[in-house]
């Protein structure tokens, strides 16, 4: 089983390999995505999601954890399989459900 430090290291290494420079967003839990982080993430949105979700589709875990209804758009943060998303204000509610998303993506690295 991977340690929390190892999971962080894997997330950070993925970001480094992708050329992503916002290191505060490459650890579990990543920093909340405010305006400065969104500016940094704009050009690397999909590679970051791929790293964040460990290149896996964690949407079923996220749905079971409550990422549904008004948070359905936030499922994009749970799908690291070839993400093709566009940063937008549609993600405005996602910080409210962030804990569930972090847990599912983090736990996908265990095992």
TrEMBL record:
Residues 14-104 form the Domain of unknown function DB domain. Pfam families: DB (PF01682). It comes from the Eukaryota. This is Domain of unknown function DB domain-containing protein. It comes from Ditylenchus dipsaci.
